[in-house]
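Annex B. Sample input.
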Amino acid sequence: MAYKLEVDLPDFEKGFEFDCDGILVKNGESVALTAEDELRFIAKWGRPIKEIYGHGEHAKLTGSSELTSKEKAEATKGGDS
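Annex B, continued. Sample output.
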């Protein structure tokens, strides 16, 4: 199952849209991430999404990556080295 990013901030109304480092998620809802979403995130931040959102209280990441470890390592390094 692909990663799913969920946002739940009680001080904001349901449906309020948050930009989670380039991924738009409405408060109280979740979005499924594609392999392309993950690659864009790694390209922008230099780290897998799980390192940033894997331990959040109000932004929760569940599921698993659609990328292989090799694909993540190559994306983090910037390609073939």
